[in-house]
Specification:
Number of helices: 15
Radius of gyration: 21 Å
Number of strands: 17
CATH class of the largest domain: Alpha Beta
Strand content: 15-25%
Strand order of the largest sheet: 4-3-2-5-1-6-7-8
CATH topology of the largest domain: UDP-N-acetylmuramoyl-L-alanine:D-glutamate ligase
Shape: globular
Helix content: 25-40%
CATH superfamily of the largest domain: Mur-like, catalytic domain
């Protein structure tokens, strides 16, 4: 009998990973020491940032795997099952592997709590991070692509000695935890930089770039900016993009990017710069990026009508989605199903998206910290919006859509995950 359901239940009982987050590395470091320091051994690429972390990780991992290297990939949050957070050679670990790793971390943690070595059981995110390290070691992963959770400096993943640090675009998000200005948030993200360890950074706001440059200089960490690479002959379409990339040392690549949206060009560019830094060839990079998949991020899951899933859960994500809708779907009747978590500022997200929808539906995912749909309607002033109390109820309204319409399910990755399970299976 599988212990997977009990493992997941215990993890959820630890509380929401953001609401109960306890920044600091002492607890996770002690747990990892007791487990034999499983975070060491593989070649680690550590990725922080506000937007594009997951996509950039996906591009990098797929390319490394294309080169014949056994890979581990750690990302968050999951869309449907927690096993998605820990992938080996592109596949989520099995429920039994997940449960076995949980038991090992859980029992070690209880012993440490009983001995007074740690103050409490590791949080949800700390526990799953330790589980990932155990599974990557057990399965012999040679390279691990590791996405931070929320910040960087005090994030549970920041216990590694990476071969390369990568920082994607920094913007406002999780302000209650990371700071209310871009320089404050950048300082937290810059915490993944390590002495002498090279780092690749995406194009940044000037104030974020200044913070990253100062931190890298203080650590004597060589800094490569993806902005030193240029894109030429860009062709964007509704299902991806094609472009040439020219590097500072004369490199030239033809990129066929299957991930949708202009913002994915920047993510792919950051991945290209990172992969060259790691020593991969132009052919390996072109092949890897062309084969990349990343569910729930402007993912087209159905045709006639076209249904897209996109976790546009912060202002920059909302702007990116809005730009895509305006560019490729301005002549279509747009439906939008939207939900958000309570830690999100609707005043910074809604104005970008809601005016673009001819049919606007607010809903409430099965998540304790979700905004009730009626509250979203009141806060946004969108009296025309229809309100539903569940995701299935919201999706049922889409039966009235015409085959020529475009439907976007967006706002929260929890909504996207719940909808994806219902629409894709």
């Amino acid at each position: 009998m599988s212990l997977y359901p009990e493992s997941v239940q215990f993890l959820y009982a630890l509380g929401n990973e953001f609401k109960t987050i306890k920044f600091g590395l002492e607890r996770i470091s002690t747990v990892l020491d007791a487990l034999g320091q499983p975070q060491h051994g593989a070649r680690v690429i550590h990725v922080a940032g506000t937007n594009g972390k997951g996509s950039t990780c996906a591009f990098i991992e797929r390319t490394i795997r294309t080169a014949g290297v056994r890979t581990g990939l750690f990302t968050s949050p999951h869309l449907v099952e927690p096993t998605e957070r820990i992938r080996i050679d592109g596949q989520p670990v099995s429920p039994d592997e997940f449960a076995g790793a949980f038991q090992e971390v859980h029992l070690a943690s209880e012993r440490l709590v009983a001995a007074g070595a740690i103050d409490m059981h590791p949080t949800y995110f700390e526990t799953v991070t330790a589980m990932a390290f155990l599974l990557f070691r057990a399965r012999g992963c040679q390279a691990v692509v590791l996405e931070t959770g929320m910040g960087g400096r005090l994030d549970a993943t920041n216990t590694v000695d990476p071969a390369l640090s990568v920082i994607t675009p920094i913007d406002l998000d999780h302000e209650k935890f990371l700071g209310y200005t871009i320089p404050e948030i950048a300082a937290e993200k810059a915490g993944i930089l390590k002495p002498g360890c090279p780092a690749v950074i995406a194009r940044q706001h000037a104030e974020a770039l200044h913070v990253l440059q100062e931190r890298a200089s203080a650590l004597h960490a060589p800094l490569v900016s993806a902005a030193s690479w240029r894109v030429e002959h860009l062709s964007l379409n509704a299902t991806g993009s094609r472009f040439e990339v020219h590097g500072p040392a004369g490199q030239r690549l033809n990129i066929d990017c299957p991930l949708i949206g202009a913002h994915q060009v920047e993510n792919a560019l950051t991945a290209v710069a990172a992969l060259f830094q790691l020593g991969y060839t132009s052919t390996q990079i072109e092949t890897g990026i062309r084969a990349t998949q990343w569910p729930g991020r402007l993912e087209l899951i159905s045709r006639s009508p076209d249904i897209f899933l996109d976790g546009a859960h912060n202002p920059a994500g909302a702007r990116a989605l809005a730009g895509y809708i305006r560019h490729f779907h301005h002549q279509r009747r747009v439906w939008m199903v939207f939900a958000a978590m309570r830690d999100k500022d609707l005043s910074l997200i809604g104005p970008s998206l809601f005016p673009l929808a001819a049919e606007l539906i607010f809903t409430t995912p099965q998540q304790a910290r979700a905004f009730p749909a009626e509250e979203i309607r009141q806060l946004s002033g969108q009296a025309r919006a229809r309100v539903t109390t569940s995701v299935p109820e919201a999706l049922a309204l889409l039966r009235d859509a015409d085959p020529a319409d475009a439907i976007f399910v967006t706002g929260s990755l929890y909504l996207v995950g719940e909808a994806r399970a219902l629409l894709v299976g």
